[in-house]
Amino acid sequence: MLKIVLFLSTLLLAVQARPVSYAGGWTLMSQNNWESSVLHYHYSPTAFESFGISLENYNESDRYDTNLQFNKLLKRKNTRTSQANLYLKTKAGLAFEGNNEYFNSHLGLAADWETRRYFTSYETALHYSDDLDNGSFHQQARVGIAPYIGEFGDLHTWFMLQVEHHPEEELDSEKFIITPLVRFFKGAYLTEFGVNSNGNAMINLIIRF
Predict the structure, then answer these.
(1) Which residues contact 169 (CB under 8 A, 6 or more apart)?
(2) I want to staple 57 with a disulfide (CB 3.0 to 4.6 A). Which of 64, 76, 142, 151 is the partner?
(3) What is the spatial distance between Cα 81 and Cα 84, in angstroms, rounded to a whole number?
(4) What is the pTM of this model?
(5) Distance (Å, rounded) from C-alpha 45 to C-alpha 189?
């Protein structure tokens, strides 16, 4: 019984790239990839939802977005050896390009399943930004494996493969993007490093408070 409690505590309290934290937790995320750089800060009043703000700057244009964010844990299933989650993810705000501003919105679903050894996730989203993005579809999937099983409080390592699908992109190299990456997390800190198939670096940082 003690091992089960420790295992579930590791899944629930250790840093993960999830859109909802523990009750009363604050989360700061910095995500940087081939497309944009995002700074995201949110608060979880309970373990089932989070409210926050995100700032996003696009790499190949002068566009940047400011959004309010609401995420909701729709379903969580724990077993003795695994955890699965389903989330609703929403954002709404303004997109700025040049001297113009546009209404901006995102609606998505994200799911993940993991054990102490294996990890899988899938996310799909619809984006709309007035004349900048008149409705586009995006999806992303990950698989991962831990090369060793760490105890609670240890440094945890994951080797992962991420696949993105952006059908509206004009360049073939940006329609499907594959990123091998490594994830490290310990305590309240998580970092990820990878290189996209189009030759750009991916660097993510997450800190829980």
Answers:
(1) 175
(2) 64
(3) 11
(4) 0.86
(5) 20
For residue 187, give both structure tokens.
Answer: 């305590």
Q: Distance (Å, rounded) from C-alpha 176 to C-alpha 80?
A: 36
- The 10s digit of each residue's pLDDT in 138-166 is 999 999 999 999 888 889 999 999 999 99
Instruction: State the maximum Cα–Cα separation within the chain, in Å, rounded to a whole number.
Output: 60
**Which CATH class name applies to 2-208?**
mainly beta
Instruction: Write down the domain spans for the chain.
Output: 2-208
Residue 159 amino acid letter: F
The span from the CA of 191 to the CA of 201, in Å, is 13
* DSSP annotation of 7: H
Asked if 48 and 20 count as a contact pair (C-beta separation under 8 A), the reply is: yes
Give dist(CA 59, CA 200) in Å, integer.
11
